From TrEMBL:
It is found in: Cell membrane. Gene3D superfamilies: EF-hand. InterPro entries: EF-hand-dom_pair (IPR011992), EF_Hand_1_Ca_BS (IPR018247), EF_hand_dom (IPR002048), Recoverin (IPR028846). GO terms for biological process: regulation of potassium ion transmembrane transport. The gene is KCNIP1. Pfam families: EF-hand_7, EF-hand_8. Residues 93-128, 129-164, 177-212 form the EF-hand domain. Belongs to the recoverin family. One of its GO terms (molecular function) is calcium ion binding. This is Potassium voltage-gated channel interacting protein 1. One of its GO terms (cellular component) is voltage-gated potassium channel complex. Keywords: Calcium, Cell membrane, Ion channel, Ion transport, Membrane, Metal-binding, Potassium, Potassium channel, Potassium transport, Repeat, Transport, Voltage-gated channel. PROSITE patterns: EF_HAND_1, EF_HAND_2.
Length: 223
């Protein structure tokens, strides 16, 4: 009897351990699901985004699937954005330009970009009017978001573009090339010579430059 009682006791203990482990597992699973619920972001209705952008509902569905594949949580932070963007420029350093681009996408300055932010910007860049594209570009160059572009901001963006292109810039650029190019452009844009470029000055100068206008038209029929 003593041996049987001892065996029964030994049999009960694992049962309690397994039950306790199972309940702990269920609690952890529920907590993980709650955490994912808080982290994951679901976008606005596609009908609303269709009304706010120049994409069809079908195009938005395709874009959302691609966005979710890269960003399962429904939002993308700057580090992930840099990793994704750098894949398109393997021969250069795209990190700084991706940083500036991310800040332009992150219109609320929260440190993360939702699908709505992404698709709204993409709609402007691919299918927006000339004014919409130029306004968005102005915001990209206005790094400190004070409503003006100063020469150092323009140099930072242009240098980031050259770094991103890497060895594919031809002819090979010297270190002072970005500054030289900016000196020429900035002098044209800063019409009242006060050291900063306003949105109106930017819009006027860009629309007077055929090269800039042609570069904007390249995106119109991409999708």
């Amino acid at each position: 009897m003593g041996t049987f009682s001892s065996l029964q006791t030994k049999q009960r203990r694992p049962s309690k351990d397994i039950t306790g482990w199972y309940y702990q597992y269920q609690r952890d699973k529920i907590e993980d699901e709650l955490e994912m619920t808080m982290v994951c972001h679901r976008p606005e209705g596609l009908e609303q985004l269709e009304a706010q952008t120049n994409f069809t509902k079908r195009e938005l569905q395709v874009l959302y699937r691609g966005f979710k594949n890269e960003c399962p949580s429904g939002v993308v932070n700057e580090e992930t954005f840099k990793q994704i963007y750098s894949q398109f420029f393997p021969h250069g350093d795209a990190s700084m330009y991706a940083h500036y681009l991310f800040n332009a996408f992150d219109t609320t300055q929260t440190g993360s970009v939702k699908f709505e932010d992404f698709v709204t910007a993409l709609s402007i860049l691919l299918r927006g009017t000339v004014h919409e594209k130029l306004r968005w570009t102005f915001n990209l160059y206005d790094i400190n978001k004070d409503g003006y572009i100063n020469k150092e901001e323009m140099i930072d963006i242009v240098k980031a573009i050259y770094d991103m292109m890497g060895k594919y810039t031809y002819p090979v650029l010297k270190d002072d090339t970005p500054r030289q190019h900016v000196d020429v452009f900035f002098q044209k844009m800063d019409k009242n010579k006060d050291g900063v470029v306003t949105l109106d000055e930017f819009l006027e100068s860009c629309q007077e430059d055929d090269n800039i206008m042609r570069s904007l038209q390249l995106f119109e029929n991409v999708m």
